[in-house]
Amino acid sequence: MKVTQTLWFEKDVEAAVRFYTGLVPGSSIQSVSTLPADSPSGPAGSVKLVAFTLGDQRYLAFEAGRLDPFNHSFSIMVECDTQAEIDRLWAALAEGGTIEHCGWLRDRWGLAWQIAPKRLGELINDADRGKAKRVAEAMLTMVKLDVAALEAAAQG
Predict the structure, then answer these.
(1) What is the distance of C-alpha 98 from the center of its chain?
(2) Could you report the per-residue pLDDT of 48-73, keeping only the tens digit for each?
(3) Separation between Cα atoms, residue 126 and residue 91, nearest integer Å
(4) Which of 39, 50, 75, 80 has its CA 20 to 30 A from that of 89?
C-alpha cells in the first residue's frame, strides 16, 4: 500500500514543484505528464500531473484550473536542524507569499507551510512541563521561529 498527498493547483504546477524540490534536500520529480482523457477540468492533455517527492514524502500535483484554494487544513511542515536552514527556507517560501505567525507562511501559490526547528518538538515534549510551557509560550509570540530564543525560553 502507498500513501500519496495530492495537491490541486490552479496554474503553474511545474514551476511550483520545481521550486519546492529545489528547496528541500532529498527531493525529486518522478514524472510530468498530462491526463490523456477529457475531464471536467478540460480536454485531453489540458490537465497536468506532476509526481514528486519532497524529502521523504510522496506527492501528486495537478494543474486543473480553479477548484478550492489551499487552506490551513493542509500544510507542509519542514523540520530543520539549524537556524540557517530555517532562514533559507523561510526567505525562499515567503518571497511573493504571505508571512504568518508561529512559523507558518503561505507561498506564492497559496500553499501553507510550517518551517520549524526539530528542536522545537523535542523541547515541547520535554518531561519538564514547565520548560515545555515556556517554550510553547515563546513560540506563540514568534513569526519566524528562532532556535536560540526557544532554547533561552527552555532555560527560563
Answers:
(1) 13
(2) 999 999 999 999 999 998 889 999 99
(3) 29
(4) 50
What pTM was computed for the model?
0.93
Q: Over the stretch 111-148, which tens digit does the pLDDT of each residue have?
A: 999 999 999 999 999 999 999 999 999 999 999 999 99
Which residue in the block uniquely carries the three cell numbers 526539530? 118
In the numeric block, which cell numbers belong to residue 29?
520529480
Overall residue count recorded for the chain in this entry: 156
| Phi and psi, residue 35, nearest 5° | -70, 120
CA atoms of 156 and 153, how far apart (whole Å): 5
Nearest one of 105, 128, 126, 124 to 115, comparing CA atoms: 105
Alpha-carbon gap, residue 146 to 115, rounded angstroms: 11
DSSP 36-73: SS-BTTBSTT-SEEEEEEETTEEEEEEE-S--SPP-TT
SS (H, E, C) 75-134: EEEEEECCHHHHHHHHHHHHCCCEECCCCEEECCCCCEEEEEEHHHHHHHCCCCHHHHHH
